[in-house]
């Protein structure tokens, strides 16, 4: 029987409603959560690792490096077939991609959580945990890197997006689609993951700022962040990569200071391109020195840029990390 390490960090899956607090709070330990899933030990030999009760919205890069060290150490054990990370769903799309960029081995890492708290009649934590362990133990997911498993679907870390605040099927891969599903006792893959991005880093640039283009966005925010000591910028532009001329001008000032600027789209799917050449269009951003992030949206592009800078990559290295490895 395969062995699976399960790293517990908290999140909705660990929460109950607390009338005194007026809402949901984390209370269930890893052992408590395992007790909600009878028969889990018939799927794999479990190696539980408790890392506390931290809401996912509280994570910083330093916390993620600490978690990655725990995951990496578990993966290095020859007896471990795969690792499950249990966390809050608020930032799964960033956390999973962070781990995915650092993970270069063949063993699967599966990130899961829940959309309902314990005690709710629709509590989905036990089923998600069972599916995640099944995926981590499956040889079919070898070489797939980091995946997110909730509501029965298997999503690649570089594409998965939280599309709804509370729906069970919130996690979807909007550009390239799911890798497959867990149906009963079976892991059913519909496609292979393919090439992945990778970076070797032990630190991340903490002050990479995400700026979202909106009607009337004039560059004042970007200038202020640059003046406050930003390490770099990701600009989520409208449409396929277009902004006002004044926002571009502010980005040009940042580029002139030697700061990396990445252009993406604020759309939930698709990529920023150099298709439009009017002032502020994507082509003018590229000519100014901005890097494109292919199908990485704002939060994921920020993670990639932060880790790339932490790894000491130059502009060419950053551009290569942001580029789609399937191209």
Brief digest:
The protein is an alpha/beta fold.
What is the secondary structure topology, with strand pairs?
Layout: E1 3-8, E2 15-18, E3 23-26, H1 30-35, E4 45-50, H2 61-75, E5 80-86, H3 92-102, E6 109-112, H4 125-136, E7 146-150, E8 153-156, E9 160-162, E10 171-173, E11 180-183, E12 186-189, E13 208-212, H5 220-227, E14 232-237, H6 245-256, E15 261-265, H7 282-288, E16 291-292, H8 298-310, H9 315-322
Parallel strand pairs: 1-4, 1-5, 5-6, 6-7, 13-14, 14-15, 15-16
Antiparallel strand pairs: 2-3, 7-8, 8-11, 9-10, 11-12
Features:
327 residues, alpha/beta, eight-stranded mixed beta sheet, four-stranded parallel beta sheet, 9 helices, 28% helix, globular
Which whole number gives the mean pLDDT?
A: 97
Give the low-confidence spans: none
Strand order of the largest sheet: 4-1-5-6-7-8-11-12
> What percent of residues are in strands?
15-25%
Count of strand segments = 16
For the terminal residues, how far apart are their CA atoms? 38 Å
Helix content: 25-40%
Rg: 20 Å
Helix/strand-derived class?
alpha/beta
N to C succession of SSEs: EEEHEHEHEHEEEEEEEHEHEHEHH
**Largest beta sheet, briefly?**
8 strands, mixed
**What is the approximate shape?**
globular
How many DSSP H or I helices? 9
Provide an overview of this structure.
Helices cover 28% and strands 22% of the residues. The chain is α/β, with parallel strands linked by helices and 327 residues long. The protein has an eight-stranded mixed beta sheet with strand order 4-1-5-6-7-8-11-12, with helices on both faces. The protein starts with a strand and ends in a 5-residue tail after the last helix. 46% of the residues are buried.
């Amino acid at each position: 029987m395969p062995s699976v390490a399960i790293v517990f960090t908290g999140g909705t899956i660990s929460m109950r409603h607390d009338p005194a607090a007026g809402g949901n709070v984390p209370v269930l330990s890893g052992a408590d959560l395992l007790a909600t899933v009878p028969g889990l030990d018939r799927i794999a030999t479990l190696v539980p690792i408790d890392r506390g009760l931290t809401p996912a919205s509280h994570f910083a890069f330093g916390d993620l490096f600490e978690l990655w060290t725990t995951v990496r150490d578990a993966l290095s054990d020859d007896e471990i077939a795969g690792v499950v990370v249990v966390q809050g769903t608020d930032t799964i799309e960033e956390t999973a991609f962070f781990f995915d960029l650092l993970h270069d081995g063949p063993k699967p890492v599966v990130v899961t959580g829940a959309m309902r708290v314990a005690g709710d009649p629709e509590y989905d934590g036990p089923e998600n945990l069972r599916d995640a362990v099944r995926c981590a133990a499956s040889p079919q997911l070898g070489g797939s890197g980091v995946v997110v498993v909730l509501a029965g679907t298997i999503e690649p870390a570089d594409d998965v997006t939280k599309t709804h605040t509370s729906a069970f099927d919130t996690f979807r891969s909007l550009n390239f689609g799911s890798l497959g599903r867990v149906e009963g006792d079976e892991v059913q893959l519909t496609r292979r993951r393919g090439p992945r991005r990778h970076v070797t880093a032990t630190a991340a640039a903490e002050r990479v700022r995400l700026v979202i283009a909106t009607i009337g966005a004039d560059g004042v925010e970007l200038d202020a962040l640059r003046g406050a000591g930003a390490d770099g910028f990701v600009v989520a532009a409208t449409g396929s990569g277009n902004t006002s001329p004044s926002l571009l001008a502010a980005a040009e000032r940042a580029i002139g200071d030697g700061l990396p600027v990445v252009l993406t789209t604020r759309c939930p799917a698709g990529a920023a391109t150099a298709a439009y050449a009017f002032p502020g269009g994507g082509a003018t951003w590229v000519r100014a020195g901005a890097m494109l992030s292919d199908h990485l949206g704002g939060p994921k592009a920020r993670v990639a840029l932060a880790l790339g800078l932490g790894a000491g990559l130059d502009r060419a290295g950053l551009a290569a990390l942001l580029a789609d490895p399937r191209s």
